[in-house]
Design brief:
Keywords: Monooxygenase, Oxidoreductase. The chain has about 350 residues and is an alpha/beta fold. The protein has a single domain, classed as TIM Barrel. It has 10 helices and 14 strands. The chain has helices spanning about 25-40, 60-70, 90-100, 120-125, 135-145, 185-195, 215-230, 255-265, 290-295, 320-335; strands at about 10-15, 45-50, 75-80, 105-110, 155-160, 160-165, 180, 200, 205, 240, 245, 280, 285, 305-310. Strand 1 (about 10-15), helix 1 (about 25-40) and strand 2 (about 45-50) form a beta-alpha-beta unit. Helix 2 runs parallel beside helix 3, helix 6 (about 185-195) packs parallel to helix 7 (about 215-230) and helix 9 crosses helix 10. The longest helix has 18 residues, at about 25-40. The radius of gyration is 20 Å and the shape is globular.
């Protein structure tokens, strides 16, 4: 197996938290149990996706508030909260509250852009301001300022018997350094770097920046380097990679067949850029931990980072996630030079 000069420093995982409409509690409970398992296995972080008007986690901050009370060490992240659905001031209050409750373990990841299917939901979401809403980077800047303690109003003091603050309360001093931007373009990478955020790069990127055809890894590498070139911390700026990784070391034959079929069905979309946005998808990595480690060491972008949040497939069963996470923690992680947290 090839060797890497830099061992993997932080190992995390990402789940979408699917549930059955007829029994949503069971799905949310499964997500919480998976996060608890991640802590027992020594993972450094657990991340949840965000889905609106679907059968996945619609309120990741609430789910992570629950997770914070059932764990004591593992970091808890969102990958990512689409800010088009959020009021930055209210979100800043929620994030700070959960960070306080967790003992400073929250890692909020956010992104910008109009809400998905905006024309169909805008009347419910913004009935009076739909055409005036700004879904660009200014929305992130507002959140950053509020989380970092900048004034939200020009008034502070006592009114009657009640004291008022001019900034979001509670204020969590370290949270501003743990904000992540989930980006898949050169522009988002540059903006995140310039504003001192951390950078989440996933299994989806935009094909851009070169007239010559590029593979996924080369495009992702250009985003990482662009981010760090514009970040005050330079090469020390934090980047986390989120590929779909499915080790099969302890899988049953039935599980291996399911995993391989899942990846095979998704493979055609990885060949060329997809749609008007020219999205490039990374292939899912399925195989033994030794095989996956070899493929990761050959991945140009993976060689540039020392943090990962491997994405769990969307549609598997609870016992599948247990097997996958156990193999990642006990076999793949060590093969990448990672040591379990204690």
């Amino acid at each position: 197996m090839p060797l890497t000069s830099e061992p993997l420093r932080k190992l995390g995982f990402l789940t979408i938290g699917l549930f059955d409409e007829a029994d949503p509690r069971q799905g949310h409970e499964s997500t919480l149990q998976i996060i608890e398992l991640g802590e027992r296995l020594g993972f450094d972080s657990a991340w949840v996706r965000h889905r609106h008007l679907q059968y996945g986690i619609s309120s990741p901050v609430a789910v992570l508030a629950a997770a914070s009370q059932r764990t004591s060490r593992i970091e808890l992240g969102t990958a990512v909260i689409p800010l088009g659905w959020e009021n930055p001031l209210r979100l800043a209050e929620d994030l700070a509250t959960v960070d306080i409750l967790s003992g400073g373990r929250l890692n909020p990841g956010v992104s910008v852009g109009p809400p998905m299917h905006y024309e169909r939901v805008k009347d419910a979401l913004y009935p009076d301001t739909a055409d005036a809403e700004d879904f660009g980077f200014e929305r992130v800047r507002r959140l950053l300022d509020l989380v970092r303690g900048e004034p939200a109003t020009d008034f502070s003091g006592t009114e009657g018997f009640e004291p008022f603050s001019d900034r979001v309360q509670p204020h969590s001093p370290g949270l501003g350094r743990r904000l992540w931007y989930g980006g898949g373009s050169l522009r988002s990478a540059q903006w995140a770097g310039e504003h001192g955020m951390n950078f989440l790069t996933s299994s989806v990127v935009k094909a851009e920046g070169s007239e010559e055809p590029q593979g996924f890894a080369e495009i992702q590498l250009s985003h990482i380097r662009t981010f760090r070139a514009h970040h005050p911390d330079g090469d020390r700026a934090r980047v986390s990679q989120g590929l779909v990784v499915i080790p099969t070391d302890s899988a049953t034959p039935e599980q291996r067949a399911k995993y391989e079929a899942y990846a095979r069905e998704r493979t055609p979309r990885t060949a060329t850029p997809q749609g008007p946005a020219r999205l490039m998808f990374a292939p899912d990595l399925v195989g033994t931990s030794a095989e996956i480690a070899e493929r990761l060491y050959a991945h140009a972008a993976f060689r540039e980072i020392d943090e990962v949040a491997f994405a769990l497939p969307f549609t598997f069963e609870h016992e599948d996630y247990v097997q996958i996470l156990t193999d990642i923690a006990t076999r793949l992680g060590p093969a990448l030079g990672w040591r379990a947290a204690v």
